[in-house]
């Protein structure tokens, strides 16, 4: 009794200290990001145009809409302009909030107005500050999750250290601030932390309710912030499903989480203008299938080992078969951006057209390089992560086997804790996806840092290993406590010695980011083209043009529907082997006044032949590949025309009849699309 009262006296101060340490770690990371960003871009010393150019491609388009919301006379007027946007794409009116998923920008602009920040801070610093603040929340949530799993503050600190030194593979916020994932993943980290607390066996009712409410709020925010969030939640739902099937968690808790998913999907569907992608979500189909299968198999968790195993296999088959069937039945014909990305990535049956191949050729959708594994091994993350996963996996199998056979369990086994088993499945599933596609490493690596820190610092995990080896010379409990402190301390000092000087050098080094050619191009467009002019060019460049000049463009980086994908393919024909007349007809069909030809695309010498834009166009148009490179593809016919972006620079007929060069520098050539065609020979 005295020990229990003493423990309760010290419990609250310890928890407060750990929360303070977690919040302090997050704030320090936000300060680090801010300092690194300033050193990299010299942001405070730049003019507005130079600052805006640092937001490139889709990042530039996101920031453009934030700026547009602030330029409106009121919040209502700004929302109306975004929902009836006829100044972004030529010949088209968009609901930009819905189609480009601008909820983060709407939220940030409203917050900027209602907090009266206009007289305190520049809009760009406010925008960046929110995202850096969210990254602080991200790191804090990872710290708390690791602490809850391991029971020690050292796991939280080790998580933060691993996250920072592996930042190349944990986040893209350093060079693409406005990306949707940078807005959304902090909320997902909060949701995972709340779920970890909710799954605990010994949680009291008050903490359980608080965890459930926090989980619900963060899940809703996650769905609103990122158009592909429901796919991430689908993987999480599978992890919970596996824990439930192994009878390691109360079924009531999993059912309540599934209900929360349904409510958040429903709210997201209506608040996102009846977003059809949420109806076609595999998460929705999976939730329906799991509940239907559970209703059919009432006695799933009864019977001896063989019977339960057979029931479990049948349950897996039933759930995933019904889920696939439901998803096919409720599939809507209209494909939005998130669906397009996922379908292109995972469906072997989709037609490989230009847009699909352009997407799949991006680095994000390539398999991770060898450097990725070398980096994680160099920081000791990968070997310790694999070791912790294997220990938890074997312990879980042992627990399940004993539970299915006679129900006898030892309280010291790590594999009987539902929150640990959930994180094991979470890490394995997202890790499997990261092995397939490099872009998904940003979903896996942060949680690998957290799970590995838990594995190194958790006395219970060490105790599980020692009981397997049946140590008798040294008490296993004492040895587990000693190693769970000594090993992370050694790892921490080793990383401090190897990586802390490198981090400090990055913060002290002044880097130079100045794209002279792009700055000159934007200044020329601002001064020499009419306000109502329509410009055509690559998706990435048009995002920058829209942000920096406000001119109407023919396409943009966030091509989220069939019409935009068609526009993209047609505008990119300026890099194909098509006639001047064909290109002229395409451009005039979109009311184009100026077309920008980029040297970087026209003369691209990519490392992978077949993935350059001009290669993809040749394939889509049925032309032979690489004939100008001396590596000719004889399986397709030659085009009678030269590559347009090369031929137009030679200034001979018929190109000069349709186009007039009005500006050029080392990187860009701008041609005016002639309205009156004069044929000169």
UniProtKB/TrEMBL annotation:
Membrane topology: Multi-pass membrane protein
Regions crossing the membrane: 14-36, 124-141, 147-165, 209-226, 279-297, 309-330, 381-400, 420-438, 444-465, 477-496
Superkingdom: Eukaryota
Cellular location(s): Membrane
GO molecular function: mannosyltransferase activity
GO cellular component, one term: nuclear inner membrane
Chief localization: membrane
Keywords associated with the record: Glycosyltransferase, Membrane, Transferase, Transmembrane, Transmembrane helix
UniProt cross-references to Pfam families, sorted A to Z: Dpy19
Family annotation (InterPro entries): Dpy-19/Dpy-19-like (IPR018732)
Family per record: Belongs to the dpy-19 family.
PANTHER family assigned: C-MANNOSYLTRANSFERASE DPY19L4-RELATED (PTHR31488:SF2), DPY-19-LIKE 1, LIKE (H. SAPIENS) (PTHR31488)
Protein name: Dpy-19 like 4
The species this protein was found in: Callorhinchus milii
Phylogenetic classification of the source organism: Eukaryota, Metazoa, Chordata, Craniata, Vertebrata
């Amino acid at each position: 009794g005295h020990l229990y009262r003493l423990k309760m006296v010290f419990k609250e101060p310890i928890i407060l200290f750990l929360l303070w340490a977690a919040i302090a770690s997050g704030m320090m990371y936000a300060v680090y990001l801010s300092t690194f960003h300033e050193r990299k871009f010299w942001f405070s010393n730049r003019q507005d145009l130079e600052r805006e150019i640092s937001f490139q491609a889709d990042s530039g388009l996101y920031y453009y809409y934030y700026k547009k919301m602030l330029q409106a006379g009121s919040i209502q007027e700004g929302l109306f302009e975004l929902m009836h946007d006829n100044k972004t794409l030529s010949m088209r009116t968009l609901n930009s909030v819905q189609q480009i998923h601008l909820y983060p920008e709407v939220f940030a602009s409203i917050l900027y107005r209602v907090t009266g920040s206009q007289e305190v801070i520049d809009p760009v610093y406010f925008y960046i500050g929110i995202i850096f603040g969210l990254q602080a929340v991200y790191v804090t949530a990872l710290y708390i999750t690791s602490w809850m799993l391991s029971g020690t503050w050292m796991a939280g600190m080790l998580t933060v250290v691993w996250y920072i030194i592996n930042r190349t593979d944990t986040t893209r916020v350093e060079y693409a601030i406005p990306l949707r994932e940078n807005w959304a993943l902090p909320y997902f980290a909060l949701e995972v932390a709340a779920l970890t607390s909710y799954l605990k066996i010994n949680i009291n009712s008050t903490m359980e309710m608080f965890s459930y409410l926090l989980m619900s709020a963060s899940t809703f925010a996650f769905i609103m912030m990122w158009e592909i969030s429901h796919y991430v939640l689908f993987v999480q739902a599978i992890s919970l499903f596996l824990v439930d099937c192994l009878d390691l968690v109360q079924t009531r808790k999993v059912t309540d989480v599934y209900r929360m998913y349904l409510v958040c999907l429903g709210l997201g569907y209506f608040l996102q203008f009846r977003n059809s992608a949420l109806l076609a979500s595999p998460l929705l189909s999976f939730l329906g299938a799991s509940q239907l299968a559970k209703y059919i198999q009432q006695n799933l968790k009864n019977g001896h080992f063989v019977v339960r195993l057979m029931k479990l296999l049948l349950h897996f088959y039933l759930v995933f078969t019904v889920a696939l069937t439901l998803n096919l039945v409720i599939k809507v014909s209209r494909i939005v951006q998130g669906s397009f990305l996922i379908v292109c990535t995972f469906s072997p049956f989709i037609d490989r057209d230009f847009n699909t191949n352009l997407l799949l050729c991006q680095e994000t959708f390539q398999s991770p390089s060898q450097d990725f594994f070398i980096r994680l091994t160099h920081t000791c993350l990968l070997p310790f992560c694999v070791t912790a996963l294997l220990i938890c996996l074997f312990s879980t199998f042992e627990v399940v086997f004993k539970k299915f056979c006679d129900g006898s369990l030892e309280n010291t086994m790590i594999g009987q804790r539902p929150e640990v088993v959930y994180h094991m499945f979470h890490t394995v599933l997202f890790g499997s996806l990261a092995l397939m596609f490099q872009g998904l490493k940003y979903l896996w690596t942060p949680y690998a840092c957290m799970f590995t820190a838990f594995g190194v610092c958790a006395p219970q995990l060490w105790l599980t290993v020692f009981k397997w080896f049946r140590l008798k010379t040294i008490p296993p409990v004492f040895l587990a406590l000693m190693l769970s402190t000594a090993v992370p301390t050694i790892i921490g000092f080793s990383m401090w010695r190897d990586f802390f000087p490198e981090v400090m050098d990055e913060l002290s080094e002044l880097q130079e980011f100045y794209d002279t050619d792009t700055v000159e191009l934007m200044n020329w467009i601002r001064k020499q083209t009419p306000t109502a002019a329509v410009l055509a060019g690559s998706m990435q460049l048009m995002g920058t043009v829209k942000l920096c000049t406000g001119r109407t463009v023919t396409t943009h980086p966030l091509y989220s529907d069939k019409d935009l994908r068609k526009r993209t393919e047609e505008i990119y024909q300026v890099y194909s082997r098509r006639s001047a007349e064909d290109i002229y007809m395409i451009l005039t069909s979109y009311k184009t006044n100026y077309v920008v030809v980029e040297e970087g695309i026209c003369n691209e010498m990519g490392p992978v032949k077949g993935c350059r834009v001009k290669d993809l166009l040749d394939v889509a148009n049925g032309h032979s590949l690489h004939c100008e490179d001396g590596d000719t593809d004889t399986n397709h016919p030659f085009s009678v025309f030269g590559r347009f972006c090369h031929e137009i620079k030679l200034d001979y007929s018929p190109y000069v009849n349709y186009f007039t060069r009005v500006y050029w520098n080392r990187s860009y050539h701008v041609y005016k699309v002639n309205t009156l065609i004069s044929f000169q020979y």
